[in-house]
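To assess whether the prediction recovers the assembly geometry, we first specified each molecular entity separately, as shown.
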Amino acid sequence: MIKNFFASRWGIIGVGLVIGILAPLLQKLGNPGNMGICVACFERDIAGAIGLHRAGVVQYVRPEIIGFVIGSLVAAYLFKEFKPRGGSSPITRFTLGVFAMIGALVFLGCPWRAMLRLGGGDGNAIIGLLGLIAGIWVGTLFFKSGYNLGRSRNSHPSSGWLLPLAMLGLFVLILVYPQVEGSAKSGVLFYSIKGPGAMHAPVVVSIIVGLAVGFLAQRSRFCTMGAFRDLILFRQTHLFGGVVALIVAAFASNLVLGQFNPGFASQPVAHNLHIWNFIGMVLAGLAFALAGGCPGRQLFLAGEGDGDAAIFVLGMITGAAFAHNFGLASSPKGLGPHGIAAVVVGFIVCLFIGFTMRKKI
Amino acid sequence: MSDVIDARGLSCPQPVLLAMDEMKKGRGGKFTILLDSETSKENVTRAAGTQGWSVNEISDQDEEFKLELSRG
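The predicted structure of the complete assembly is given in tokenized form:
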């Protein structure tokens, strides 16, 4: 019945293994510590590169993100799954994207990075993942009581192309305004001279890995939020197999590459405020659950033509701008000055959405 | 005639939730579900498998799928 190999159990496990190997390799080739791939961090870096925020240490157009969307687009076209659609409460999805990003930046990583941090030995990731699971669990309670954002409708193919085209536009900007050694600006783009934004694999490697991951993830429907949601909601282990494979492969790859450093203190781009690592990810997990996908999955869906997922992506990028402009994002030194207030507001907004948006379909 | 559930245009996890609810109610042991994405089709098929229901694809036209689920 299911003809797509990547949607089989071994398919999704294979994709998890590939991502778990590629991410530590990206780190070896220059990406920041335990950040071979981090969808939230990389979208935040893009927000900085185009000047939506001006946090000097996190400004870089990450080719991985561009590759995720375009790789998915290519896979969707090859397998006749490109399906332009939208209109399932876009403003709600935008809002969820904003607060998903804020929650992730309080923890310092999205679910992808939480798993890669765990695979790199960062014990704080365990707390973050527990928070993620708690947030998703709250989300499943809303689903059980009828929460939904309504139906999407089919749309013009060109509308499905808009986010992929925007990503191609960013890639053109990288080519036109490449990084200049020691300079914080090249043409219209901002670059980091120090900090995580200054650490990156060569552009060509990043884009190729991004395209490969985007392609595979579109075929397999890999989702780091759905993995836990399906386990909690349906007792289904299908997607869960993918994330376990990712963690195991990342752990093994980090051991081989000499990047495994177990402990809680002094982990790369991390803090060890346990309560806020937990609570930040509860907020992110809840927002991802209510929006129906982890940040990676939203990029892959956007590549398939899902305009609602594209809006969520734009919400996350906007959320990153708020997070740094308003001092909401954490840093290795600890919480941002207004991080706690933002998390409180985020919970109020997510609960408002969860409680009020239910109806008979 | 068996019940028909329209899950077109719904995003994850709604199609599976609707299918699971219907399987748990189990009235008549048979129903039809309308879907509009390959992903939903895979997910519903997988969910039916875990519940011991069988899936029969009735039609696949214009990116719309009609599946018939029956117990056993």
